[in-house]
């Protein structure tokens, strides 16, 4: 499928480069995760909008679910969203000055090396969000990049308390589900703390690459907070939850290595 997309893109822009970024590039993808692809086209004369031009050509391809194609211009980086015949979701973007996909890929990969707990925690929490339909940022949910920054911030402050994965997940759920004041606190991993720059929003997460608020569209954060709190309270009642959770997370980690 990737090769078919490459062939299609190169039939228009011979020297274009396609790269994978996001959770598939950092090995934080679930089976249901979108595949993020950025296209870097060479500068030069081109009539029309590349987004809609490519979207129109993709619609004619046999490997695409034609009813799934959506060209979205309202985001900071316009995107073509679609599904393949095998039900794989693709997000196709074009590189521009606002596109931080490749830099964020390098950033997250570095933090995965620094914090071994990050990957298994992210996979468990992403699955929790996905099972409750709260993982889609286009629908107000908590996106993968936001979640990973939240985990990194948590580990920077509390990761040395314990290395037990079950306990770390439990503390994470308690912290962001019960203790954290979203209306007064900014989540940051690089020491940036100028909260006055942001208008009142449901979630304040400073992008370490731009210091913009990447939590701006998470308008269902109150549901995410409630999910974290309820999950914490449920797990706390189980006397064996730490052992069971640690074993499940460890198993997921080995399956995704």
The number of distinct β-strands equals 5
Q: What is the molecular shape?
A: globular
CATH fold-type name of the largest domain: Poly(a)-polymerase, middle domain
- Strand arrangement in the largest pleated sheet: 1-2-5-4-3
The helix tally amounts to: 8
Main beta sheet: strand number and arrangement? 5 strands, mixed
Mean pLDDT: 88
CATH class of the largest domain: Mainly Alpha
Q: How far apart are the termini? A: 23 Å
Total discrete domains: 2
How does CATH name the architecture of the largest domain? Orthogonal Bundle
The radius of gyration computed from the alpha-carbon positions, rounded to a whole number of angstroms, is 19 Å
Range of helix content? 40-55%
Order of helices and strands: HEEHEEEHHHHHH
DSSP strand (E) fraction?
A: 5-15%
Strand and helix map with partners:
Blueprint: H1 2-12, E1 17-21, E2 35-40, H2 50-58, E3 70-72, E4 79-83, E5 89-94, H3 101-114, H4 118-131, H5 144-158, H6 165-179, H7 221-237, H8 241-255
Parallel strand pairs: 2-5
Antiparallel strand pairs: 1-2, 3-4, 4-5
Helix pairs in contact: 4-5, 4-8, 6-7, 6-8
Notes on the protein architecture:
There is one protein chain. This protein has helices at residues 2-12, 50-58, 101-114, 118-131, 144-158, 165-179, 221-237, 241-255, and strands at 17-21, 35-40, 70-72, 79-83, 89-94. The protein is an alpha+beta fold and 257 residues long. The protein folds into two domains: 2-99, Beta Polymerase, domain 2 (2-Layer Sandwich); 102-255, Poly(a)-polymerase, middle domain, CATH 1.10.1410. The longest helix is centred in the last third of the chain and has 17 residues, at 221-237.
